[in-house]
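Researcher: We're teaching a course module on how sequence relates to structure. For the next exercise, students receive a sequence and then see the predicted structure as tokens, so they can try to spot secondary structure elements on their own. Here is the exercise chain.
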Amino acid sequence: MPHPPQNPMPQPPSHPLPPLQPPPSIPSHAPGRAPGPRGGRRKAWVIGLLLLLLLAGGGAYAVWAGHEGDAEPSAAHAPSAVAAGAQAWKKAARTEPSPSAKHASGTWFTRSTVVKAEPDMMTAYDLKTGTKQWSLVLDGVLCAASRDADADRVLIALKKSGTCDAMTVIDIRRGSRLYSQPIALHTIGDPDLDNFRPDKWQVEMEVAVSGGHGLITWATGAKVIRLGDGKTVGESPEKECRIVGAAGGAHLLTQRRCGQRTTVRSQNPDAFDRPRWTWEGREGEDVAGVISTSPVVLLISVGQARPLQVVALDGDGKERSRIELRRDHETSACSSGMSKCPEYLVDGDTVYVARKGSTTAHDLANGREKWTYKADANRTAFPVAVQGGQLAVYVAGTPERVGELSRVSARTGEAVRTTRLADDLRTTEWRLARKGAVAHLKEGLLLLVNEGVLDSVDTDVVVAVAAP
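Model: And here is the predicted structure for the students to work with:
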């Protein structure tokens, strides 16, 4: 959707302003001001002030609109210190989801912001304060989004008129749309068109970015574009095989299934028919996810069964090791795409695996277990990030139990310290965990991000918790 034209002179808003109300109370856990129930909702005392200014004939619209229509007061200073484990800020959905537009996959980071995708828009929030930096309405409904950003650019597949046959590239640092264009051109009655309809997908569409290129895959084809201008540089229609996934980052990977064999290719964007290397799985194996592309680490299953192994590849696509997964490893959120597996974390030559009650570290060079950190016996312990030689492990809260963020020695698995999350976050954590939340650790904050489905306009999409 193109941006609206800019008026030469500011005009007052066309919609009526709400009545003046007393200022809201500030809960004890809030840093200086209440983190309202929804990002972008106007504070009542600001509305009253603007109403008085408008009635007095003052040019208040610039204050009302803020940056690109931002109705939230800008924060001139960072909020006061928040106790460890307490909520620093949170944001809820900015638009009302619908049955055909409810998925919120897509989270990216710049140096100072977290950028969150919703079904039909994207919004950037300041990491420290939660203040909205920019918001952009998409040209359609989100079908798939790249897990990674490439030079602050992300690729998104969009649905228009029920068909996911459009794409857009967004600059997440500036909050600008670089371009939008069709993925493929179809005629009425084209049998391949069903592969672009979510209600008829044999395989979900996936997109990825790497090295200045974007990759889009669907059941019967794949396409590589240049991110800078959208020009197609490679295509691969498939008639005998199915293309079932894409992953980006250090490599541009496609997954193909031909009969009982699955292959993973590191694509050469300039010669799509000549991949840099090809890994072929054993008969009957499927790649349930790409845990990492630096190094390449695959999650292996057989049929629709739960993942059974982790396979590490070297720089030439040869197998380095196979790791047998125990029956208590967690698989609840690693099911919606080839490149979304928050239960696993790769750092250097180690893969950390979430299990019920614990996190286990394995050596990718030989597949051996290094150590196991035991957390709460009844809750999954998710590996989040490795910082300063320590692994951060998150155990989500429940209505009865508080959440925990533990720091564990990445060398020995011994606990260093544990931060108990605030008691009043239990229900919020539990609801996010049930929707497929993914945890990140950035700038001293534990960010719980909704990567699943939005139920209503009040659904939380980002909750930031102090984690110094």
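Model: If you want an answer key for the exercise: The first strand starts at residue 87 and ends at 92. DSSP finds three helices and 32 strands in the chain.
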